[in-house]
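Hi R.,

Here's the chain you asked about this morning:
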Amino acid sequence: MSTAVIVGAQWGDEGKGKIIDYLAKKADFVVRGQGGNNAGHTVVVGNEKYALHLIPSGVLYDDTINIIGNGVVIDPKGFFEEIDGLKERGVNTDQIFISDRAHVIMPYHLEIDRLSEEMRGEKKIGTTKKGIGPCYMDKVERTGIRVIDLISDGIEEALRERIAFKNILIEKIYGGNPLDADAIISDYKKYAERIKPYVKDTGVMVYEAVQSGKKVLLEGAQGTLLDVDYGTYPYVTSSHPISGGFAIGSGIGPNMINEILGIAKAYTTRVGKGPFVTELFDDTGDSIREKGHEYGTTTGRARRCGWFDAVAVRYSARVNGMTSVALMLLDVLSGFDEIKICTSYKYNNEIITDFPSSLDVLAKCEPVYESIEGWSEDITQAKSFEELPINAQKYVKKIEEIIDVPIKIISVGPKRSQTIMTGEIF
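And here is the predicted structure, written out as C-alpha cells:
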C-alpha cells in the first residue's frame, strides 16, 4: 500500500496546497476528507497561480482522480464557481467525484453563521462565515441534507420543512430576516441536476484504489491546532483536520494509511483570535508577514506571525503520529541576523514542554527560545540540502532534532521547482 495523509502541523495556512500539488504528480487519487470552502490552498504552476478552496489540488494533473469525501461539507454554489473558474483556465475537471454521503451547505447555514458571529460581539471566533459550523451542527444533530438527499425525489419536502424551522431560528433568536423557501428550492434543484454526474460512493472508490496498490494522497485542510478536539478550542474549525479524521472522512480504515506527512512553516502564523505564544508585534513580525505574503487565500485577512513554535509542532507530531515533515517557506527567513526557535514554554516560573489544553494557561505562557545565527543568501534556487547555506542547514537540523520527526521536504519558494526532497513519501 502507498497511502499518504497530508496534515497541517500548525494553525493551517502552512503551504499544504503546494506539497499536495507536488506529490500529486505521483498520486493516482487525491482525496479531500474534511472541512469545506472555508479552506484555501494556493498552488503555483509556472507563472500561473491557482487558489483552490473545495476542489482537491490534484485537479491540476489530467490523470489524477480527485475525490471530495464524505467528511467534507459542500456549498454547491461555491463548488460550481470553482469548477467554472478552472474550466475557463483550461483545467480538466472531468476527474472530480463527490461522496454521496457528504453534507450540503444551505443558505440558512451561511445566514446563521453570519448572525451568530455578530451576536458574539467581542467574543467572535473568527469564522469565515461560509456556513461550515452550522452545517456540521446539523450533521451531528441528524437534521442535515446529504448529497444523496439533494439528488433524491423528496428533496423539496425536506427543504421546506428545514427552511421553515431555520426561519424561526433566524427571526426569533437572531433577529434576522426570513429566507425565501421557493427561491432556495428552485436554486438547489438546479444544483442537484448539475451535481449528479459528480456523485459516487467514493468510499468504495478509495478503498478499491488502496487495495489495488494505487497511490492515494489524503489532502488536509486547516491544521492540527484548529482541530475541534485537539486545537485551541473554541478558536477552532468544526471538523478533524488531524490524521485520524481522514480515515473517517474518506471511508477507509486507519490501517490503510502508511505515511503521515505534517506540513509546517519555518515560522508560525495563525488567523483569528486565540493565544499565540510566539507571536511577534514588532518590525520582525511585519517583515515575515510581507516577505511571506501572509494574507488568507479565502478571506484576504492578514495573518499573525511569529517564530517557529516547536512545542506546538511536537504536539502535532504526537496527535497525528507524524512519520515525516515538510518545512515550508524557509526562504522567507533569509536576511535575518538571528532566528529563534521556541523550544518550551515558561508558565508561573515553571518550564512546560507539552502544549496545554487550557487557553488561560496558554495565554500566560512565555516562549523559551533558542537562537540560531541567520543567513543572508538567497536560497530560492537551491536544489539540494547541501546547496543551502550552512546556517540554514543548521536551522533545519535543529528543528528536526527538537520535534523528533524527519524533515523529508524543504520548500524554498512557491513554485513546484523550488522544492528540495530529502526522503521519499510515496
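One quick note: DSSP finds 13 helices and 20 strands in the chain.

Cheers,
M.
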